[in-house]
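README, section 4: Worked example with a bound small molecule

Sections 1 through 3 covered apo chains. Here we extend the same pipeline to holo records, where the ligand is supplied as SMILES alongside the sequence. The molecule in this example is zinc ion. Nothing else about the input changes; the structure line simply encodes the ligand pose together with the chain.
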Amino acid sequence: MIAKEFERYSRQIAIPSFGEAGQRKLEAAHVVVAGLGGLGSAASLYLVAAGVGHLTIIDAQRVELSNLNRQVLHWLPDVNRLKVESAMEKLHAMNPSVSIEAKPEKVTQKNIHELLRNADVVIDGTDNYQTRYLLNEACVRIHKPFVHGAVEGLTGQLTTIIPGDSPCLKCIIPKPPPRKPTLPVLGATPGVIGCLQAMETIKLLIGMDEPLIGRMLFFDGQRTSFEEIEIRRDPNCPVCGSAPSL
Ligand SMILES: [Zn+2]
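The generated complex, written as structure tokens:
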């Protein structure tokens, strides 16, 4: 590792379970961030700051004024720009050694395998269950770890799905919660959950410490408290029920 790189990452390399070996693993890794809203903004900022080698960012939408309270990658001059363009600019300025691929596409049944093909970890940065279920199903089928996060108001949830090993999203949430026309969100909430998604991803990529597998974490910002529950696979799950164990 060249001196400048070492200096840049020195504070995380100093973590015993991370080390120089961890940094090298991170540099060789490819993360796909599906959605560049509040969750995807926070997650991709911290992954790029940490020096993940390759990042694919996916979002078909353009920046709207009402996004700016929480989608911290997008700033006032970015309104009406494609989110992937706005994100790419900030992330590249932050750490030009990360190779970033921008996909201004909506995730569909048709393109999903191509989008996720090279991923080592997939991050759920979406705001709807239709896309979440699509991502979950594809991740189960092609055995990609999937870090789920969701927020509303001052509350959020998080779990790390390892296909074949942990419950999938459909085991935990068989039916989507009713969709509200406008999802209320305090910007700091996806900040909290998105940062945790980045942390989970880094832990998975390096093989360090204890990721949130088989557990669902709930964040209640109204009380400023975290709670977790144990989650189990549903043997009859239509998505992962017949998946072979790893
Ligand atoms: Zn399942």
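What to look for in the output: The chain has one domain: 3-230. Residues 167-168, 170-171, 234, 237, 239-240 surround zinc ion (CB under 6 Å).

Section 5 describes how to batch many such records.
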